[in-house]
From TrEMBL:
Pfam families: ABC_tran, oligo_HPY
Species of provenance: Domibacillus mangrovi
Membrane topology type: Peripheral membrane protein
GO CC terms, sorted: plasma membrane
Family the entry assigns: Belongs to the ABC transporter superfamily.
The protein, known as: Nickel import system ATP-binding protein NikD
The UniProt record lists the keyword Mitochondrion: no
Domain ABC transporter: 4-245
Keyword field: ATP-binding, Cell membrane, Ion transport, Membrane, Nickel, Nickel transport, Nucleotide-binding, Translocase, Transport
Reaction catalyzed: Ni(2+)(out) + ATP + H2O = Ni(2+)(in) + ADP + phosphate + H(+)
Length: 307
C-alpha cells in the first residue's frame, strides 16, 4: 500500500531580476514517486536535482516565492496545507539536512522528548542517545555546545523516537562517526521492518544499497528511474535509464567514468528529455517531448529508448 504518493509535482521559484522583471526557475518538473509502508526508498542524484525540495514540498515548508502544481497524497488523501500542518512533526517527520532546525534556546534532551508520543519520554530520549553514542551530559546541553556530528545525531534521535508513519531523512549522516552511521542505517531498517515508511535522501548510493528496498534516481528536478536495489550491480546492465547507468559507473568503486557535460540550469531546461544533451543514445525524437514515466522490468523509467 502506498502511504505517500507524489504525482506530476512541479515547483518553480519567482525571482525579480531588475525592476519589475520576473524570472522563473523550474527546479522540479513532473516529478512522480511513491513510498510504501514498511519500505525504505533511497532518493539519489546530483546536487540541485530537487531531492531536498521534494522533502520540503511534502512537509509544506517551501519558501513564499515558490509556486507548486501536481498532487501529493498521504494515506490516500491529498496533503492540503491544513493537513500538512496537522501531520507535520507527528505522522510525517523530517530529519533535516541543516542543524539550524534545532531550537537554540532549548536543551537538546528536552527537544527530543517533545517527539515522544507515549510512554516515558525521558527514558526514550536517554535510550536513543545511548544508541547514538551521545554521553549522558549531552541532554543538558544547548545546540551551540554541540559539534556538527552531535547535532545531527540529536536531530536523528528526534525522528527515531517519534513513532511517525513516515520519516524523510535528508542527508542524515554527514559528519558522523562510521560506527554511528552504521547504527543509524540499521535503525532505519528496523523502523521500516516494523511498518514505518522511510525516504532516505542521500548522495551515498553504496550505503543506501545496504538498507533500501528501492532507489529513485533524480535528474534536473524529475524522477528518471525507480529500481529495486538488486538492479545496482556490475556495469549497471540491469538499470533502465542512461543517466542511472552513467551515475553508477561514475562511482569510484566502479569504473570512475565521469559523465560529460553538466545538469541543465533550472531557468533554461531543454524542451525534450532533460538528459538528452548529455546522452549518448539521444535521437531527434528525444528532443521533441519529455517522456512519461512508464513501468519496465519491475521498475519505472522516463526514457523512450529504455528496454
Amino acid at each position: 500500500m502506498s502511504i505517500l504518493e507524489v504525482e506530476d509535482l512541479s515547483i518553480s521559484f519567482k525571482q525579480y531580476t531588475g525592476g519589475l522583471k520576473q524570472k522563473h526557475h523550474h527546479v522540479i518538473t513532473d516529478l512522480t514517486v511513491t513510498l510504501e509502508a514498511g519500505e525504505i526508498l533511497a532518493v539519489v542524484g546530483a546536487s540541485g536535482s530537487g531531492k531536498s525540495l521534494l522533502a520540503h514540498a511534502i512537509l509544506g515548508i517551501l519558501p513564499s516565492n515558490a509556486g507548486m502544481s501536481g498532487t501529493i497524497k498521504y494515506a490516500g488523501d491529498e496533503l492540503t496545507a491544513a493537513r500538512q500542518r496537522a501531520v507535520r512533526g507527528k505522522e510525517i517527520v523530517l530529519v533535516p539536512q541543516s542543524v539550524n532546525y534545532l531550537d537554540p534556546l532549548m536543551r537538546v534532551g528536552a527537544q527530543v522528548r517533545t517527539s515522544v508520543k507515549q510512554g516515558d519520554a525521558i527514558r526514550a530520549q536517554r535510550k536513543v542517545f545511548q544508541r547514538y553514542h551521545l554521553k549522558s551530559d549531552v541532554e543538558n546541553m544547548y545546540p551551540f555546545q554541540l559539534s556538527g556530528g552531535m547535532a545531527r545525531r540529536t536531530l536523528l534521535s528526534t525522528a527515531m523516537v517519534s513513532e511517525a508513519n513516515v520519516i524523510i531523512a535528508d542527508e542524515p549522516t554527514p559528519g558522523m562517526d562510521p560506527a554511528v552511521i552504521v547504527e543509524a542505517l540499521h535503525h532505519f531498517r528496523e523502523l521500516a521492518d516494523n511498518g514505518c515508511a522511510v525516504m532516505l535522501i542521500t548522495h551515498d548510493i553504496e550505503s543506501a544499497l545496504k538498507i533500501a528496498d528501492k532507489i529513485a534516481v533524480f535528474y534536473a528536478g524529475t524522477t528518471v528511474e525507480v529500481a529495486p536495489v538488486d538492479d545496482f550491480f556490475g556495469n549497471g546492465e540491469a538499470l533502465r535509464h542512461p543517466y542511472s547507468k552513467a551515475l553508477w559507473r561514475a562511482l569510484p568503486q566502479n569504473d570512475f567514468i565521469p559523465i560529460r557535460g553538466s545538469q541543465p540550469d533550472p531557468s533554461a531546461l531543454p524542451s525534450g528529455c532533460l538528459f538528452a544533451p548529455r546522452c549518448e543514445k539521444a535521437t531527434l525524437e528525444c528532443g521533441q517531448a519529455r517522456p512519461e514515466m512508464r513501468n519496465l522490468r519491475n521498475g519505472m523509467v522516463r526514457c523512450i529508448h529504455a528496454t
